[in-house]
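U., I forgot to send this yesterday:
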Amino acid sequence: MLLASTLSFAQTDSAGCGVRGTGERIGSNAGVFLHGLKGVPREMVRPRNLAWELPVAATTIVLIEKADLPTADAVTSKSLVRTSDRITNIGIAAELGSGSIAYGSGCREGNSRLRESAFTALAAAGEAGVSDLVLKLAFDRQFPDLPGKKSKGDFWSGGRSFPSGHTMTSFAFASAIAHSYPEKKWVKWGAYGLATTISVLRVPAKHHFPSDIVVGGALGYVIGAYAADHGPGR
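Result:
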């Protein structure tokens, strides 16, 4: 048993999946992500990016002005809130769990494509989580559900609503997977379908406004796509 475990670890480590190999991957992905951040100001004004940035910005503004508060106020069922919250948390756990299993399987079986794709998706989810925290602190938006008073969804008023972390994380993961397996439509639509379900249900869960979801989804998609297209070995 000990010999088998030792051999298994040796094979895993030789594939770059041991502690050292995984640490190197984390460092490489972090370097790629930081390099991408440096290019954000320049990339934002490129015509090909403005083609989607402007519609997203316009949609976000309209939602903030016209739809966020009415949508949040329309959710009154406590059972719906609890169920939606539970499903979104299970969904995120399913994404991260499946990514971890896929990474382990890729290491164990010597499947470099599965190994790298799974690691990239997990790294993208982590990068999205960090980015989301920075943005939450910067915008400081009230949550839809405030104890003892009605939320106005105001920015810089004490809260962490904008953007949605679940949405950013799930779409970063899904986008990285979809870009890693462009020929497998069922993988693409399955990943995006789960991410969409998680994202949409954050509204009836009373954790986010619709505009939080739109921005989180767009940013998560970009982070995942960039990680898949520019990550180490790409």
